Amino acid sequence: MNKFESRKRRSLRTRHRISEQGAVSLTVHRTPRHIYAQVISKGVVLAAASSLEKAFREQDLGAGKINMASAIGALVAERAQAAGVTKVAFDRAGFKYHGRVKALAEGARGKGLQF
After folding, report:
1. CA 93 to CA 96: how far, in whole Å?
2. DSSP 8-state assignment for residue 20
3. Model confidence over 17-75: pLDDT tens digits?
4. Edge-to-edge strand list for the sheet holding 89-91
5. Is the entire prediction scored with pTM above 0.70?
């Protein structure tokens, strides 16, 4: 089993647990250049944010992808709260809770999202 299959397996296990609980999830996907976050409830996307958005790219966040991830976390938290969601389950999609994934989570917590 290679690292991609292992990540996919961890992802499926986590998503199964979240769906059993019936919780709203904050799902993260990262690529080497960008990061994406969605708040999902029963297959419906309630809020989303990514580093590809034009309004986001125009902001000056300084250097580094960690700062970008933290800002994305804060943005998705604001949008989720506008949609009426305050408590979510964090779905890191099999990625390690380290670096950009951790920064996104802390940015979302900083804006009042609970998980």
Report:
1. 9
2. H
3. 998 888 899 999 999 999 999 999 998 999 999 999 887 777 766 668 899 999 999 99
4. 44-50, 35-41, 25-30, 89-91
5. yes
